[in-house]
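Batch manifest line 457
LIGAND: D-gluconic acid
JOB: complex structure
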Amino acid sequence: MTDTPLLPFPSNFLWGTASSAYQIEGSPTADGKGPSIWDTFSHTPGKIERQETGDRAAEHYLRYQDDIRLMKEMGLNAYRFSIAWSRIFPQGNGSLNPAGLDFYDRLIDELLANGLAPVLTLFHWDLPQALQDQGGWPNRQTTDAFADYAAVIARRLGDRVAYWITHNEPWVAAMAGHFTGEHAPGIQDPFAALQSVHHLLLSHGKALQALRSELPAGKPIGITLNLSPVHPASNTPEDQAAAHLFDAVLNRSFLDPLLYGCYPQELLEALGSFFPPIEPDDLRLISAPLDFLGVNYYTRAVIHHDPQTPLIQASQVQPIGNEYSQMWEIYPAGLFELLLRLQRDYPPLPLFITENGVPVPDGVDADGRVRDERRIRYLHQHLVQLQRAIQQGVPVIGYLVWSLLDNFEWAYGYRMRFGLCYVDFETQQRILKDSGRWFAEIVRHNGVPPLPGAQGT
Ligand code: GCO
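JOB STATUS: finished
ARTIFACT:
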């Protein structure tokens, strides 16, 4: 790769990619699967760019063996995927669909046979539509359905899954799903949003309890949050206060109840009136000990005081001068800052980077190659920051790129390509991008080259 000495990663470091069921699987009615809120939402006119849906997606349900072979060829040792709850319980609860479980059983066996540690996410946003019809996350009963589902998965797959993740980015599920309405189920109601926040957390607590009683002792269980450093747009007291509140809403709303057993005071002052009743045992369940915290990092948030923004009078600005991807500001130093903050402000806990990646408008060149230089640069810059944080003593156990394949990027449809592997959505042909080859080299060396021009690193 280079003659310069590499910046080393810990031995036994987990290197892999992450995905989610609705974004890659397709086969929405195969083998008895019931509809999820994403099936409904993506088929609702006007919700997704170009009316795209996950009906085919990357056909991973049919091609999972090819996809696992790709990961093996890259030399990866871990793979994060999510289970489509409505494959297991087409009605959300009640009668179990064994054929749905069989798919994940085969997937996990195939991963293990190819040297990949299965990292299983129970919920990556595709709630069974039948549960939505009974009120979805704003309904407290959904928390019990989730715990029952978790127990079933643990009983069947528990012996072979290496890492368990209850929820993926519950903040996004609550807010994009119930406040802005950009995601399924497309609700725009602050009560529904804050009810979802509390019930997603509570469902995590109940599922954690169910997993602890069903799984063999010592199986690591965590939750994955989307976290970003929050910076004020200026030094004015108004912008600083707005950034402080935004941090409570974005980051501490989940970190504090999970790791300290209480909601941030600032959050309760600003949005407490929208919360559902919090029952005496709730926060005890929510804050039961975790084995690791999953961190998804993409960007930072720069916030200014904005009287127009309902409820919190704080909104995001796009700082000038930095580079942007198709979706966000590119801010690698934020990963270092975030990891050190987690170590400083919260009880010690292994951290697992469960997503990091960038959308690039990739295309296939005449010679059949995908030259995604921009993605290589992004991953390189972030891995250097990650390595710095590890050097400073932050206990990070692994790093997963979002994503293995180009896939269905929610409301953006297929326009955003995040894969290390290009997917031609017509033919379903996969082509390993230059970034995929580059990442395979990083994994092979368990180290990353210093950034060009960097001194003394
Ligand atoms: C998320 C989800 C993924 C996204 C990815 C890129 O983090 O939003 O976990 O499903 O596709 O993050 O936006």
